[in-house]
Amino acid sequence: MDGNLNSLKKHIFFEFLNLVGRAFVLVRYSDNVVLGNRGFTAEEKENGIILVFNSRMNFLWDDYGITATLVFGTSPQKCFIPVDDIMAVYSPDLNAQFMASPQPSAVSGPQPIGSQKEGEKPFKKIEPEKGQKIKKYEKQGHVIKVDFTKKRK
Protein backbone atom coordinates (compact mmCIF):
# COMPACT_ATOMS: atom_id res chain seq x y z
CA MET A 1 0.00 0.00 0.00
CA ASP A 2 2.86 2.38 0.78
CA GLY A 3 4.14 1.86 -2.77
CA ASN A 4 0.79 2.89 -4.23
CA LEU A 5 0.64 6.01 -2.07
CA ASN A 6 4.21 6.93 -3.00
CA SER A 7 3.43 6.38 -6.69
CA LEU A 8 0.44 8.69 -6.33
CA LYS A 9 2.61 11.40 -4.72
CA LYS A 10 5.06 11.11 -7.61
CA HIS A 11 2.32 11.16 -10.25
CA ILE A 12 0.68 14.28 -8.79
CA PHE A 13 4.06 16.00 -8.43
CA PHE A 14 4.87 15.48 -12.12
CA GLU A 15 1.35 16.44 -13.21
CA PHE A 16 1.77 19.78 -11.40
CA LEU A 17 5.17 20.25 -13.05
CA ASN A 18 3.73 19.50 -16.49
CA LEU A 19 0.72 21.78 -16.03
CA VAL A 20 2.28 24.90 -14.48
CA GLY A 21 6.03 24.28 -14.41
CA ARG A 22 6.47 24.04 -10.62
CA ALA A 23 5.40 21.97 -7.64
CA PHE A 24 5.68 22.54 -3.90
CA VAL A 25 6.54 19.71 -1.51
CA LEU A 26 5.98 19.73 2.26
CA VAL A 27 8.62 17.56 3.93
CA ARG A 28 8.41 16.54 7.58
CA TYR A 29 11.45 16.42 9.83
CA SER A 30 13.20 13.07 9.82
CA ASP A 31 16.75 11.83 10.33
CA ASN A 32 16.46 10.33 6.83
CA VAL A 33 16.01 13.74 5.14
CA VAL A 34 19.31 15.24 3.96
CA LEU A 35 19.45 18.97 3.28
CA GLY A 36 23.20 19.21 2.72
CA ASN A 37 25.01 20.67 5.71
CA ARG A 38 22.10 23.09 6.29
CA GLY A 39 19.77 20.73 8.16
CA PHE A 40 16.43 21.75 9.67
CA THR A 41 15.80 24.83 11.80
CA ALA A 42 13.90 24.44 15.10
CA GLU A 43 10.69 25.70 13.45
CA GLU A 44 11.15 23.35 10.47
CA LYS A 45 11.65 20.40 12.83
CA GLU A 46 8.22 21.16 14.26
CA ASN A 47 6.30 22.20 11.10
CA GLY A 48 8.31 20.71 8.25
CA ILE A 49 9.91 22.51 5.33
CA ILE A 50 8.41 23.53 1.99
CA LEU A 51 10.61 22.89 -1.03
CA VAL A 52 9.88 24.26 -4.49
CA PHE A 53 10.77 22.32 -7.63
CA ASN A 54 10.43 23.63 -11.17
CA SER A 55 10.60 21.95 -14.55
CA ARG A 56 14.04 23.45 -15.35
CA MET A 57 15.70 21.85 -12.30
CA ASN A 58 17.87 18.77 -12.54
CA PHE A 59 16.58 16.22 -10.02
CA LEU A 60 15.80 12.52 -9.83
CA TRP A 61 12.71 10.95 -8.23
CA ASP A 62 13.19 7.21 -7.84
CA ASP A 63 11.53 4.54 -5.66
CA TYR A 64 13.31 5.88 -2.57
CA GLY A 65 12.81 9.62 -2.91
CA ILE A 66 14.01 12.81 -4.55
CA THR A 67 17.71 13.51 -5.08
CA ALA A 68 18.52 17.10 -6.04
CA THR A 69 20.83 20.02 -5.48
CA LEU A 70 18.68 22.75 -3.95
CA VAL A 71 19.69 26.35 -3.31
CA PHE A 72 18.99 27.86 0.12
CA GLY A 73 19.75 31.59 -0.04
CA THR A 74 22.84 31.54 -2.24
CA SER A 75 24.19 28.21 -0.99
CA PRO A 76 23.58 25.07 -3.11
CA GLN A 77 23.08 21.94 -1.00
CA LYS A 78 22.97 18.28 -2.05
CA CYS A 79 19.63 16.96 -0.81
CA PHE A 80 17.76 13.72 -0.49
CA ILE A 81 14.07 13.64 0.45
CA PRO A 82 12.68 10.15 1.16
CA VAL A 83 9.28 9.73 -0.42
CA ASP A 84 7.84 8.52 2.92
CA ASP A 85 8.70 11.90 4.49
CA ILE A 86 6.77 13.88 1.85
CA MET A 87 3.56 14.91 3.60
CA ALA A 88 2.02 17.06 0.85
CA VAL A 89 2.42 17.97 -2.80
CA TYR A 90 0.65 21.12 -3.86
CA SER A 91 0.39 23.88 -6.42
CA PRO A 92 -0.78 27.37 -5.45
CA ASP A 93 -1.06 28.15 -9.18
CA LEU A 94 -3.69 25.42 -9.62
CA ASN A 95 -5.16 25.83 -6.13
CA ALA A 96 -4.72 22.07 -5.69
CA GLN A 97 -3.04 19.87 -3.12
CA PHE A 98 -2.51 16.26 -2.14
CA MET A 99 -1.82 15.50 1.52
CA ALA A 100 -0.82 12.22 3.17
CA SER A 101 -0.56 11.32 6.84
CA PRO A 102 2.56 9.65 8.20
CA GLN A 103 2.43 5.88 7.83
CA PRO A 104 1.61 3.87 11.01
CA SER A 105 5.08 2.36 11.12
CA ALA A 106 6.56 5.85 11.30
CA VAL A 107 4.43 7.18 14.15
CA SER A 108 3.16 5.86 17.41
CA GLY A 109 -0.54 6.00 18.09
CA PRO A 110 -3.70 4.02 17.61
CA GLN A 111 -3.24 0.64 15.99
CA PRO A 112 -5.57 -0.49 13.19
CA ILE A 113 -8.41 -2.89 13.94
CA GLY A 114 -7.11 -6.43 13.86
CA SER A 115 -3.98 -5.51 15.79
CA GLN A 116 -5.68 -5.75 19.19
CA LYS A 117 -4.89 -8.58 21.57
CA GLU A 118 -6.89 -11.78 21.29
CA GLY A 119 -10.22 -11.50 23.11
CA GLU A 120 -9.96 -7.70 23.30
CA LYS A 121 -12.84 -5.77 21.74
CA PRO A 122 -11.80 -3.03 19.28
CA PHE A 123 -14.62 -0.71 20.43
CA LYS A 124 -15.79 0.34 23.87
CA LYS A 125 -19.40 1.53 24.19
CA ILE A 126 -19.97 4.89 25.83
CA GLU A 127 -23.47 5.50 27.10
CA PRO A 128 -25.17 8.58 25.58
CA GLU A 129 -25.89 11.54 27.79
CA LYS A 130 -29.45 12.01 29.03
CA GLY A 131 -31.74 13.00 26.15
CA GLN A 132 -29.06 12.28 23.54
CA LYS A 133 -29.99 9.92 20.70
CA ILE A 134 -26.50 9.59 19.26
CA LYS A 135 -24.61 6.46 20.21
CA LYS A 136 -20.89 6.97 20.73
CA TYR A 137 -18.24 4.34 20.38
CA GLU A 138 -14.63 4.97 21.33
CA LYS A 139 -11.87 3.25 19.38
CA GLN A 140 -8.45 3.64 20.94
CA GLY A 141 -8.57 7.39 21.41
CA HIS A 142 -10.92 8.19 18.52
CA VAL A 143 -14.60 8.97 18.91
CA ILE A 144 -17.01 7.85 16.22
CA LYS A 145 -20.55 9.24 16.33
CA VAL A 146 -23.32 7.14 14.81
CA ASP A 147 -26.94 8.29 14.49
CA PHE A 148 -29.31 5.60 13.24
CA THR A 149 -32.52 7.48 14.08
CA LYS A 150 -34.76 8.69 11.27
CA LYS A 151 -35.28 12.40 10.95
CA ARG A 152 -38.91 13.44 11.11
CA LYS A 153 -40.13 16.37 9.04
Rg over C-alpha atoms, rounded to the nearest angstrom: 21 Å
**Contiguous uncertain segments of 5+ residues:** 105-115, 134-140
Average pLDDT, all residues:
79
By helix and strand content, what is the structural category? alpha+beta
Number of helices: 2
Overview of the molecule:
- The protein has helices at about 1-20, 40-45, and strands at about 20-25, 35, 50-55, 60, 65-70, 75-80, 85-90, 95-100, 125, 135-140, 140-145.
- It is an alpha+beta fold and about 150 residues long.
- About 15% of the residues are buried.
- The N and C termini lie far apart (about 45 Å).
List keywords for this structure.
four-stranded antiparallel β-sheet, single chain, 2 helices, 153 residues, alpha+beta
Could you give a short description of this structure?
With 153 residues, the chain is of the alpha+beta class. 16% of the residues lie in helices and 37% in strands.
Topology, pairings included?
Layout: H1 2-20, E1 22-27, E2 34-35, H2 42-47, E3 49-54, E4 59-61, E5 65-72, E6 75-82, E7 86-91, E8 96-99, E9 124-126, E10 135-139, E11 142-146
Antiparallel strand pairs: 1-3, 1-7, 2-6, 4-5, 5-6, 7-8, 9-10, 10-11
